[in-house]
Amino acid sequence: MMHRRPTQADVARLAGVSKSTVGFALSDRYDIAIPETTRQRVKRAALEINYRPNLAARALTSGRMNAVTIAFPGSIHSYHARVLEAFEYHSNMHGYHLIASTIGSLDSHKSGLDFSTLLHGPSDAVVLVDAFGHYMPDVNEILSGPKPVVSMGITSIDGIDSVLIDLKAGGDAACRHLIDGGARNIMYFGVNLPQADIPAYIAKCLVSDDADPRCIAFCRTADAAGLPIHMVGGDLNDRRATIETLEAYIAANGCPDAIFCHNDTLAIRVHGVLRRLGFQMPRDVRLVGCDGIEVCEDIEPPVSTIKQPVEEMCKAAWDFLQTRLAEPERPRQFVRIEAQFLPRASSTSTL
């Protein structure tokens, strides 16, 4: 019986492999070519002698925690769960643990403390997803922070490696699709809209790129077609309030002949309200969402959406992160990837 604490060398001896193979196998490094039978033999050997890697010692030796933090704005919704799953695939493939967190979940305009916690927490790097404009006052701390930061999503940060998803082309295609289908009274149902001054926000979207790209695409496409611009704010974190807002709008103004939703989560809620009120899609009202979550294909009628290229985005962000860890002084890395509009039966009768 082994009375001392078992070591990696003991596992290697029992499994008949090298210490490096033990390290790769127990770290689940699938980027290293190790036969699956060998991986399983190493894990059985470790279990047999009750070997547990000393993570603190490993971090002291390598200078790495083998962990990455991924942070989402406010809260984690259906689309972000998909992003989390896709990014975790790459982190696990390379032997990294993934820590999920949020920024500004208690107050989106006081995110400095959250940023500081992430930058000084137990991980080797931070990935920011959809870091919206009101986080920008805290960017200086990111730039001068102790670890690499990569931004991915519908916004990018100057001076930081960024994978930018361009929603403008997809948003424009979605709006033109609604207009070409005969819609003349289109409502944009969004989140984080400045309810106190929607007209000023619309004016900003028409002339400035410093706004949500979906809003920009909607406002500019509707304006170019000579259509009125209607924007109404929902709340992703309050399902009942969102439903009541839409019902009140329809009661006061009648049902629009098309609704362009900020994301698929809102689109699914709108879908339910429209059906409950007796409106048929696309005959009475055309509906479009954004993000491309799978459940939109499973409801009837399936919801048209702007599909974000999640797998491609996460792969690019992971590659940027690995390069940055290896080459801290490398110039900023940047790539732009376009989202794709996918028409479905909620907005067209030709499918």
TrEMBL record:
GO terms for molecular function: DNA-binding transcription factor activity; transcription cis-regulatory region binding. CDD domains: HTH_LacI, PBP1_LacI_sugar_binding-like. PROSITE patterns: HTH_LACI_2. It comes from the Bacteria. This is Transcriptional regulator RbsR. The lineage of its organism: Bacteria, Bacillati, Armatimonadota, Armatimonadia, Capsulimonadales. The gene is rbsR_3.
